[in-house]
Amino acid sequence: MITVIETGILEMRADTVSDEILEGHFRAMEAWAANNTEPVGFLVTLAAVLEMSAAQRRRFADFQVRMQEHDRRLTVGVALCAPNAIVRGFVTAVYWLKSPVYPHRFVQSRAEGLQWLREQLAKPERRPSSAPP
Predict the structure, then answer these.
(1) What's the CA gap between 43 and 108, in Å, rounded?
(2) Which helix (H) or strand (E) holds 9?
(3) 0.85 cut: is pTM over it?
């Protein structure tokens, strides 16, 4: 599920992961990115990452590669809300397969993630054109 939290911040979360859900996410994000022209930050809740198979983690790494051009230009950061060290380890493993081109940070809470993303968006070179100076 992808939700707009506020200008420039999207939240992504899933309670479960299946091949169909993952592929649907990839299609939706690629379609969205094709039309997005504004800086954006992502708050990602990682509770379901423990369910991902090795094949699904590889497909996610491949998706990261496909999104690189957009992410390099417009992703100001990804706040990763990980419930425990095991989940952080899984995400780290995916990032070992392909390092992200955007800043990222593991956070303990949604509030911490939103604060960090707001700070990233507030940087003059990253502010969305619709945000006040």
Answers:
(1) 12
(2) strand 9-13
(3) no
